[in-house]
User: Fold Mevalonate kinase from Faecalibacter rhinopitheci.
Amino acid sequence: MKNPLFYAKILLFGEYGIIENSKGLTIPYNFYQGALKFELTPESASSNESLRKYAQFLSENFSDQFNTESFIEDVKNGMYFDSNIPQGYGVGSSGALVAAIYNKYSKDKIDIQADLTKDKIAELKLIFGKMESYFHGKSSGIDPLICYMNIPLLIQSKDDISTVGLPAASIDGKGAVFLINSGEPGETAPMVQIFFEKLKGEGFRKTLKEEFIKYNNACIDYFVKGEYNPLFANLQKLSSWAFEHFRPMIPQKLVDAWKTGIDTDTYYLKLCGSGGGGYVLGFTQDYEKAKTHLKDFNTEVIYRF
Assistant:
């Protein structure tokens, strides 16, 4: 393909926890996508300028790993990132861009069609973390990794990532995983900064380890197995914990809706990415019933069961 597409991603479980070595589960989301293209127009000018700055960053820091001269030349010739992935919504807009740049300009590209080992996946994650640090100050590399590989990934720890199969979706299932649009973008760096400030408190570190990570890991185990009753029992605890301890990260417009889900046991919300704005994730065993409580918001189903 001349312009390979790179899709958005959704981190179903593991936001913030993976920084502290919890499990994570991430899936591609093909509704949004981006590709590198050549055609300088007034609409593409800002993307082209962003790429110029990014090419400079790679040139100054990673010229041994990337064909940065070719990258810089392509930007001069009008290259931009044509993407409908919303920025600041927690679905991997910078991850898809980083994956596209790696794919086109890496000097020693790791072939994902070949027999991928855990070591190769870990190597890719490390490279992507360094590349994406330009956008967020600090990056785990997970977002570009999922955008690049375009298959579900199970994160056992920061050094142990593997592909994973998910239960087959049911098109007409009552249950659903869905996105809710908060109506405004969020910024990753300030949210991550809040998290690191919280980590300085011994009480927060303790509850993160003993409660949040425990519920998070249980949700992943049950979701992958398709065991929905224990999944939702743990989702209720996870959503309640986040409501208490991640309140600054919950978009203001969704605070009441978040609590309503917990109070009615109709649906449970959790962060999608770093929070502060963008999307949040919803889980329900009865999507039509959940929608009655969420009629003031735009919801988007990503998985039915």
